[in-house]
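Demo today. Your pick:
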Amino acid sequence: MPIRRCVFLAGLTLAFIQSGLGFAQESGVDWAEIDKEYTEGVLPLLQRYCLKCHSSQKRKGELDLERFKLLAHVRADLKPWQKMIHQVVNDEMPPKKSPQLSAAEEKLLLAWVDSMLAGEARERAGDPGRVILRRLNNTEYNNTVRDLTGLDLDPTRQFPVDGAAGEGFANTGASLVMSPSLVNKYLDADREIAGHLVLTPAGIEFFKGTTRPEWSQTLVNEVKEFYGRYVSTGGKVPLDDYLEATLSLRGGPESEEAVNAMAAERRLNARYLLAMWKVLTSKTASPVIDRLQLVWRDSKPGELSALKSTIDGLQKSLWNINNVGHYKKWQEEVDAVAEEVPLETPLKSGGGESESVVYLVAGAGGDGAGENWVLWDLPRLEGGRGKPIYLRDLRVVHRRLETETASILEALPGYLKAAGEVHRKEGSRTEVASRHQLDKDRLVRFLGFVGVGGPVSPISIPSSRPGVRRPLLTSSVIPPIVP
C-alpha cells in the first residue's frame, strides 16, 4: 500500500477514535454514579433473586448473569439487559414460585437498567457497531458494471443465487460469502467485461461488441444517429430551415439568447444556427464571406434561390462532401487557391469617348494583407490579325505609331496616288513606291489600311535582346492609344 494511502487510513482511524472520545466527553453521562448504583444496589439484587438459576454453573436459558461482576462487563454485552427489562416488566421474571422483587426493588432495577442503556445510546450515537466486510450481491454488481460501462452486460448470469440472511435481506454481510469457485466466476466476468474495453485517444470507452468491426460500426451508428436528428435522409443539412431562421432573426435583437430561442422554436440545432448567424452578420476581410453576406442581405423570407445557389457554388469550390462511413474524411477541404487565372476584358469606347481605361487591381485573400503578392504575367492587348501588344512595350508602340502616322500624313497625296496605281495594277508595290519615292513598308501598311493590295506587314521595334525584332501591330494607321 502506498505511504500516502497508509497515512490517509491512519488519519481516518485516528479521526474515528477521537470522534468516539468526543462522544464520551460530550455525552454528559455520569458513569461513576451509574457504576456506584450497580455495585451497591443492582448487583446485590442479581445475587439474591437471579443467580440461583442464572449462575455461570447452571446457565438456565443460556443466560449467565454471574459474569457481570463489574459495570465494564455489563457495557460489553447489553443484549441480556435489554431482554431482562422486557421479562421483568411482563412479570415473567423472577418465576412465580421464586421470591419476588418488591416494588421498590423492581423500580430501582428498571431505573438503573434504563439509565445505563440510555447512557450507552448517547455514548455510541453514530456508531453502527460491528460491520461485516461484505462483497456486492449479484444485483449490486450488475448495476455497478452497468453504471461504469454504460452497457447492460449481466456479468453475474453464471453466478449462484444470493441467499437471504435471517433478516430476509440479500445484502447483509453474513449471507454474502465468497467461495473459491465464486472467485473464479468473478475473474471470468472481469475478463468478459475487459473484452468490451477500447483504448481511444480520448481515454477508455466500452463498446457492446468485442471485435474491431463491431467497434467501428458502433461509432458509425453514433455519428449517423447524432446527425440524423438534424439532417435529411440523404445526410444533408436542411439549409432552407436555417436560412429562413436567420432571415427571421434579421432586424431583431442580435444576441445568442435570441438565436437559441429561435432554434428551440423551430427545432433546429442551436450551435449550428449560431455559427451560421455569426458568419452572416460578422465583419470579415474575406471576399468569399463578403459575397455571401451581400446576397443574404438582399434576400427576403421565402426567396432563397439566389442565396442557396451562392452557397452551393461555394461549397463545391471549397469542399468535397463524402458519404458517412467511408474511410475518407466526411468533409475534405479543397485547395481553392489558383496559381494562374486567365483574365480577359474587351476594350469598349462609346458615347463619344475616345479612350478605354483598364485598371489592374489586386486585394487580400481574406486572411490579411501580409505576404500576399500578385504577378501580372505578360499583360497585353490582342485583336484583329495582328500580334499582341505587351503592356511593357505600349509607350514605345505609342511613340512609333505617332511617328508612322505623321510620316504618312505628310506624304498623304503620294500615298493616295500610289494606292490608285496599285489598285489599277500599274506596277508592283515595290515599283510604285520607288516611282513616288515612298517608304515601301509604310506603303504596304497604308494599302492594308485602305483595303488595297495583299497581306499587311507589321511594324517592328528593336527587342531588348540583340538580333531579335518583336512584331507589334499590323495596321498602318491606328488611333492613338493612351498608356
Q: What stands out?
A: Confidence is low (pLDDT under 50) at residues 1-25, 463-483.
